[in-house]
Amino acid sequence: MMHTAPVLRLNAAQVAQLIGYCTTYRSFLWRSALPTLERNQMLRSLQALQGRLEKAREHAQVGIALLLTREEQHTLKQLLSGLIQMYGNAPPSEQRNQALGELAACRLAIQRMLDQMQPL
Amino acid sequence: MFCFHWFFRRKKQASFDPWEKVTMTNMPQPVQDNRTYLEGSAYQLPKDEEEDVRLNFQHHALYHAIGNHYVAPITPPLPLILDVGTGTGIWANEMARLFPASIVVGLDLSARSFQRPARENCLLRTGNVLTGLPFPDDFFSFTHQRLLVAGITAANWPRVIHELVRVTRLNGWVELVEVGSLTDGAGPATARMQEFFVTVSQTMGFDGEIIHHLGDMLKQEGLQGVETQPIPIPVGHWAGRVGQMMKHDLLGAVNALRGRYCAQAGIPGEEFDQLVKDMAQEWEVYRPVCTFVAAYGKRVSA
Which residues in chain B touch residue A75, judged by CB atoms under 8 angstroms apart? Predict the structure, then answer.
């Protein structure tokens, strides 16, 4: 039986962008949410995803190919939708609009990659 | 002789409010409690069973408040992990459980508080970061140090950070976690206690403000991807289980500093105790947060 799993192919700039997103969203959760089991689980999932991105970056100068587990896919989607909510609730500004634009582009690109199931 | 001097000075200053303005023109007094301290060390907290219980409780409180035992985005393989100022060794033992393929070394000035590690991949050893860590350069994948702001004087922080970075290997992480102000926006009693702690600790060479510069110091030592992450933690029963745990821990920490700080400032313990009671009450009214600061970075060049 052939198993399939989505592969995230990212260039160096995209890796840096996702690492930055992880840091920003973790910071937001610590700042804005009281400690709960759910918040802490999300924090740990984000930390683990960020750790994988950091580790992959060590070994690749140009880009990386990351095989994602189902949990990591879920974390990635939650990260991006959480950040969209965060910036969406911020007061209007040029910086906010730019961040939202970048997030939307990143979300679209990642969704396409996740949709393309790669044979293992 | 010394005791007489203290007695008469206190009698003459009966109407003086020592909390109004703590100055170090007061002579430091002998510690008036039955706690055990580390001799010949700048470490201000006691080193006894009562403190060991508090440290272990604090470990669990911080886990629930922060969400994990570490903040840096580490990922296996991590062959060697170091915990400086390990105390009872609870953090090292827990990390040994989380990372069974790693060897976790917990280091402390004294073995007095060490609890027998439950994991064979956890080693507890004595050593002093101030005189140099007993490890070679580029050795650990993750070097961790937590809550030593009451043990490292301001002048020694750069040397400590240099040592932590020195023993960390290429692509390894260094993480520091410290507590900032006692509680932000907590009310008059807490503000008073905070001012007392700042004033007294400064006379002993400590500087709580240094925690806001930990990230800069890591950068100066060449670490990259340095993040300084404030982590506000609610304090009080109003904030549920974590708030209760943090309140219990913070009051325990304040009481643990009572002996040395009151002695240093020449403050009667009874007045200190009353202020602690007032603080505990106002935390339920003002609903404050205590902000911890985590600073971490990655070593990317030798």
Answer: none
Is the CB of A51 less than 8 angstroms away from the CB of B75?
Answer: yes
Mutate to test the interface with A, among B75, B226, B247 (most CBs of A within 10 A): B75
User: Considering the entire predicted model, what is its pTM?
Assistant: 0.90
> What is the ipTM score, two decimals?
0.91
Sign of CA dihedral A110, A114, A116, A120: positive
Based on DSSP, count helices (H) and strands (E) in chain A, helices before strands.
4, 3
Burial class (CB in 10 A: 0-12, 13-18, 19+), B167: buried
| Any B CB within 8 A of A57 CB | no
Write down the H helix ranges in B99-208.
157-166, 188-203
A70: buried, middle or exposed (CB in 10 Å: 19+, 13-18, 0-12)?
exposed
Q: How is residue B239 written in tokens?
A: 């904030």
Inter-CA distances, B78 with B81, B137, B153, B168, Å = 7, 16, 31, 11
C-alpha distances out from residue A28 to A24, A31, B213, Å = 6, 5, 21
Distance CA B193, CA B255 (A): 11
Based on the number of CB atoms within 10 Å of its own CB, is B96 exposed (0-12), middle (13-18) or buried (19 or more)? buried
Residue with tokens 């990143």: A106
Question: Tens digits of per-residue pLDDT, B273-290?
Answer: 999 999 999 999 999 999
Chain centroid to CA A39: 16
